[in-house]
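Journal club prep — side note

Before the paper discussion, L.F. wants everyone to see what a predicted structure for a comparable chain looks like in token form. Sequence:
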Amino acid sequence: MDRITIGLIAFIVTMVVTPFAIRFAKKHGFVDVPDKRKIHKIPTPRIGGIGIFAGVLIGIIATAFFTKDTWQLWALIPISLIAVMGFVDDVKGLSFKIKFLVQIVASILAVILVGANLSHFNNPFGGGISLGIFGPILAVIWMVGVTNAINLTDGLDGLAAGISAISAFTIAVTSSRVNVAATLVAISIFASSLAFLRYNFHPAKTFMGDTGSQLLGFTLALIAIKGASISASTLSLAVPLLALGVPILDTVYAFGRRILGGHNPFLPDKMHIHHQLLEIGFSQITAVLFMYAVSILFSIIAVTYSGIHELTAVAFYIIIGILLISFLWVMRKRRAKNGRRVENKIDKDKSDR
């Protein structure tokens, strides 16, 4: 009953607050203007993530009330820091260096205040491996990495919100027997993301901006650690890795592609997986639904094999990643070949006249 109640609370709050955020953005000019790197055609409010933040915030407070636990209240400090940073970036713009620094600070606060630490890791031969001083460092890297991974998926209407909802639902299911509070926070994220889709699915009435994408990424990363315990002294990130499969895979692919191409891995481009789906002929809606399907595939694996080991999760990543990238490569080659055929036919028709 607590799960249904908290889900409804987060859903309703996001549904109510988001329209106010849209009107506020239009009134003050906080809109995303189209340019050559963006997909949308008309100026669109870009601070809709305020609605997500409101839903998650109230959901976390309600979770603390129901569970009588306190770590999630402490979590509001780094989560709010991320949300405020995202809002400032949406309305004024921040350099990636400043955003990166704030993400690190928030992650360190999560380790200290919330205990989001990877002190012991799953051992493939049984038991756990003590990470010592490297535990907090790896936890910070994990939270910063996932925060940016979700942010990078926010390129099509409804993509980041839908992927976050699927990931949160998966974490809620797999952590339900381990950490009730983490489960309830995950449900808050799921419900808020789902409600936001009402305004963000194509054609979007608003974008979540960094306010929403950074908040979702950071909060998902944090509860993934809190809900990843397989014993009192051991953590397994295999399930969270799979639950967040699509954004992590896209980030690894993007960084690898940029580095191999001799480009700065931190500079944005239009070659993410969702961009390539558009390039081979998918519409925005079909591209987003395709990405949802891949995310659901990862989630089914995570739920079905809840005791899966990290090495097995990486194997699934490699297999699905190779299949997906191969599909994109083949389709792009085929589309380019068809394009050349059309050009040759046009040239032939002109020469025959």
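L.F.'s comment for the group: The CA atoms of residues 280 and 330 lie 10 Å apart. Keep this in mind when we get to the figures.
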